[in-house]
Write a structure and sequence with these properties.
CATH architecture: Up-down Bundle
CATH class: Mainly Alpha
Helix content: over 70%
Strand content: under 5%
Order of helices and strands: HHHHH
Number of domains: 1
Bound molecules: MU-OXO-diiron
Shape: elongated
Number of helices: 5
CATH topology: Ferritin
Number of strands: 0
Length: 162
């Protein structure tokens, strides 16, 4: 039986994953409005990934016969100063998610809940990947600078995300 504390913490994480998706959707809408089609596509894919993360946790609660409680999702930020700021905000957001996953893992360790620790291992690995993906994009910004033509190429390359 999953403890009440872990059930609550996983429900909170489900809300964070869904609100992460919403944050990325807000960024995707900003990109669409500002002509960054490729980045908008990349961010829409990220929106879908975050929903998958939420479902992984949701199904785990169901498997453990624990109650799923859906929380309110706040409206995402709609305005950004530029494309670089979008990805800087994305990195900050992922660092926040990583901290939350680590706290959840710590709780599972303290409670000696081994099944939850194994389930969360996937999320620990995923966060390393998520942060790295955004850092790679930010590195590309450093390389191309604010040059219009290079920005166009960078936006196009983001559009190839599958
Ligand atoms: Fe589900 Fe981007 O963390």
């Amino acid at each position: 039986m999953l403890s009440a504390a872990l059930t609550n913490a996983i429900n909170t994480q489900i809300a964070l994953e869904l609100s992460s998706g919403y944050v990325y959707l807000g960024m995707a809408m900003w990109c669409a409005e500002n002509g960054f089609k490729g980045a908008g596509h990349w961010l829409q894919k990220q929106f879908a990934e975050e929903q998958e993360h939420a479902f992984k946790l949701l199904h785990y609660l169901q498997e453990r016969d624990a109650e799923v409680k859906l929380h309110d999702i706040p409206a995402p930020k709609a305005e950004y100063a530029g494309l670089k700021e979008v990805f800087e905000a994305a990195l900050k957001h992922e660092e926040h998610v990583t901290a939350s996953i680590n706290k959840l893992y710590e709780l599972a360790v303290n409670e000696k809940d081994y099944a939850t620790q194994i389930m969360l291992q996937w999320f620990v690995d995923e966060q390393v990947e998520e942060e790295n993906n955004v850092k790679d994009i930010l590195d590309s910004f450093k390389m191309v600078g604010a040059h219009g033509g290079s920005m166009y190429m960078l936006d196009r390359s983001l559009g190839s995300r599958e």
